[in-house]
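Database export, one record per block. Field names are fixed; values are copied verbatim from the stored entry.
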Amino acid sequence: MNHEILQPGPLHDENGMLTQRGFARDLILQYDRNRIRASRLRIKEWDYYWIGNDRYALAFVLADNGYMGLASVTFMDFRAKYKHTVDDFLIMPLGKLNMPARSSEGLTAYAGKKVQISIRSSKAGKSIEIHVPRFPVHSGLASVATAGPGSSGKIAEGESAQDTGNKDPGLLARIELSELPAESMVIVTPFEKRNAFYYNQKINCMKVQGGFRIGATDFDLTENSAVLDWGRGVWTYKNTWYWSSLSTKLPDGSRFGFNLGYGFGDTRAATENMLFYNGKSHKIDRVDFGIPESKGRPDFLSSWNFTSNDKRLELKFEPIFDNYTNTNLLLLSQNAHQVFGYFSGQAVLDDGKVIDLNRAFGFAEKVRNKW
């Protein structure tokens, strides 16, 4: 059973307890970090964006995790099996990043020496500017680029990283997100540990205009789709999550996507599994990613088999790239396999309409944290 939250109100009561548990189709519960009854060291707030296609992508995150903050930008070249990430870590931000209480309002920004990110949000969309002064150019970069953001007016013609005065080529992005769907995946997940919770929104299928530049090479993102992972919560120290996301256009021009996930917290009230079709959400129940194994260990680059217990999802996932990270800082660690590839199969909407997917590009991940 999946309980849908329909009554607006505060996320927490005056004693810091969750007022409701379950899923919603918008942020109808108001997040207020001042009502959280936990140490500021334990509060985690982040905005993660992924924008791209099956040739290249840009991912970026701003996170205020209490004792540690992060501004990060990653470029991925799927054909060359290449990625590069620039991280800027903050010590003890403790809420100083002022992450907005809603995804549809306010300014999310950070200006450091390594990374500068600005995201202005409104109900109409988002305006994003990113500058990474030192970002290397890898061999063969131009082979994956297309006529880029200069042609869309998002980066002025002739502008390049040399304009920053740095010897390193650098990365510059100007992106507009519009036509935000009317519905999204929102879930309130409690944990067994008192005061621990996760309030999460995933927005799929946002329309993109603009792009980014690395050195003198432009990358056009116009007509691609974007996904936002907006998270606020107090997490337990040790946990594992599974997450998969797809945002694509069907042959008839319709927009289709999904958000799938499990692995942490108390999900008896609801799961986060949801299909999206032309801006409307369609709830499904529990899923399994069917990650293959080889010699008793996950084989992330072999074919996965996605299924749901309500028989509304059956997909084969063919991986092409594993964005693997393994960070170990004594008491803090993350082991993450974010795997990109093609989904083929069927998904069934609430009205019984069958969506056929044929090599639609998306990703699926397994992440283990100690944080």
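Remark 1: DSSP finds one helix and 26 strands in the chain.
Remark 2: The chain has a mean pLDDT of 93.
End of record.
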